[in-house]
Structure formats: C-alpha cells, structure tokens
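Q: Here's a chain of 104 amino acids. Please give me its 3D structure as tokens.
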Amino acid sequence: MKLIVQRLIAILLLVIPGLAAAYGFLLMKDALYDYFAKIGSVDVINPEFSWGLFIGGAILFLMGIGFIGGWIFFRDRKHNYLSSRFRPRIPRSDARKTEDGRTE
C-alpha cells in the first residue's frame, strides 16, 4: 500500500506542473487570439494587447516546462544517461606535487 501512495504522489508531482504549463500556453494563445480578433474588428480603432494575461501565461508555461525538464535532467544524471558534457567533472589525482606539497 505504501508503494502505491508513493507512486501516486510522484505522478501528481509531474501532472500538476504539466497542467500549469498547458494552462499557461492556453493563456498566451488566448491573449494573442483576442488581439488579432480585435485587429480584424471594424468597431475597434486602437486594439490593446493584454500583456498581463500573456506574461502570466508565459510564467506558468516556463515554470511548468522548467520543472519537468529539470526532473528529467536530474533523473537521467542519477542513471548516468547524460552525455559527457553534462556529467560532473572528476578532479585528476595524478597532478605533480612540488617540494612544499602544493600541486602545480
């Protein structure tokens, strides 16, 4: 039973940021669509872009995508699936030592 609860929590930790990213994308899409719809309207002379809706959607989208991307990155690092440029560097131990014990 404990394993089922842990897996449910793990799935929720990925689904909630995914839903936030999808909702942020929809907010940005709606802001752009409303602006272009106002441009095509004959009644509106100077259409205004809803920057608050667009920026709020962009923040939600970037936070959701960033969380999921970071989770995948650290999971792949744990399983050693990353390419060599993303792996942590191991210091070399074969450096020469000087007379006073410092490395060159």
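Q: Can you summarize the key feature?
A: The radius of gyration is 25 Å.
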